[in-house]
Design brief:
The complex is a heterodimer of chains A (207) and B (100). With 207 residues, chain A is mostly helical. Helices cover 82% and strands 0% of the residues of chain A. Chain A is elongated, with a radius of gyration of 21 Å. Chain A starts with a helix and ends with a helix. Chain B has two domains: 52 residues; 31 residues. Classes of the chains: A mainly alpha (207), B mainly alpha (100). Chains A and B meet through helix 2, helix 4 and helix 8 of A and helix 1, helix 2 and helix 3 of B.
Chain lengths: 207, 100
């Protein structure tokens, strides 16, 4: 009797499978969130094809391409961090997470310069220069700011997740035998990468 | 002291080299998209761009996100999510083409 009570006390309630499933369910709500915006984009582009083409000329393809490469690479380092902790190489896992955070910073820096240049040229939501343009171009830039802005917000949240995980590794709460939080943070980061995979051609590569 | 942990369907270790390979594929696809957009294939540009973006997503989902190592439940989830999204798109354009 007392021995079974003793066992019950030390039973670790942990369901990594359930945790990952919960994360995937959350990611689907994200898919619908961005999906809604992609539908709005599709309809307006369908209606204003010429104006979308014209407006897209204003974007710098090189900056978009650079950010694509940065995000793809950061996704690789995040995935590798999971492998590293699975193999018990905690130091390497931490290093890879810092590299991922660094890439995220580089992405945001690019975004900052890109938006600054646009705003400097008088293109921002509600600006007199933008409102003077045809309706299709106003819609294009409205969607550009909302969709890349919402995406950038996700980049920031992803960084917060990784910094939290780095702290938890330091505290011994994320370990080579218990790393589902790292896995879930990496899943979130890959979603951020997935969204960008579609944003890049739809906003930067209309010719 | 007995310690029980639930490790259902867990612990598939993907080697680093495989991730590098996937990364190379993703970079190559990006190069193709940018080049194709520069050529100017007219209406086919968007079709090709979306096809390549879907191919890239497939790699990210299956390898980076470990979907191929997960149970059928996860794959069913994602199928339901994508079908839901496809219905949204279809009905939006259907509705749009009749109410214009």
């Amino acid at each position: 009797m007392s021995s079974s009570a003793h066992t019950a006390v030390h039973h670790v309630h942990r369901d990594d499978y359930g945790s990952r499933m919960g994360m995937w369910l959350f990611l689907f709500t994200e898919l619908i969130l961005f999906g809604g915006l992609f539908i709005v984009y599709a309809v307006y582009r369908f209606v204003h094809q010429q104006e979308f083409h014209l407006a897209a000329q204003e974007l710098n393809t090189v900056v978009g391409l650079l950010n694509t490469v940065i995000l793809l690479t950061s996704s690789m380092t995040a995935a590798m961090a999971v492998t590293a902790i699975q193999k018990g190489n905690v130091r390497f896992a931490k290093g890879l997470l810092w590299v991922t955070v660094l890439f995220a910073g580089a992405f945001m820096l690019n975004k900052y310069f890109e938006w600054s240049a646009k705003i400097h040229h008088g293109i921002y939501p509600g600006s007199p220069d933008l409102l003077a343009k045809p309706e299709g171009e106003i819609l294009y830039f409205g969607l550009y700011y909302v969709m890349t802005g919402l995406h950038a917000l996700h980049v920031i949240i992803g960084v917060v997740f990784f910094l939290f995980i780095l702290r938890q590794i330091g505290q011994g709460k994320v370990t080579p035998t218990s790393y589902v939080r790292l896995e879930n943070s990496a899943l979130y980061w890959h979603l951020v990468d997935l969204i960008w995979i579609f944003l890049f051609p739809l906003f930067y590569l209309i010719h | 002291m007995s310690e029980q942990t639930h490790e259902h369907g867990h612990g598939h270790v993907v080697p680093y080299g495989k991730y590098v390979f996937i990364w190379l594929a993703l970079i190559a696809f990006t190069g193709i998209t940018v080049t194709a957009a520069g050529i100017g294939l007219g209406n086919w540009t968007i079709v090709l761009a979306l096809a390549i973006a879907s191919a890239k997503s497939w790699f990210v989902l299956n390898y980076f996100m470990h979907l191929r190592y997960e149970d059928a439940v996860f794959k069913t989830f994602i199928a339901v999510a994508f079908i839901t999204f496809a219905i949204f798109i279809t009905f939006t354009f259907w509705d749009y083409s009749f109410t214009r």
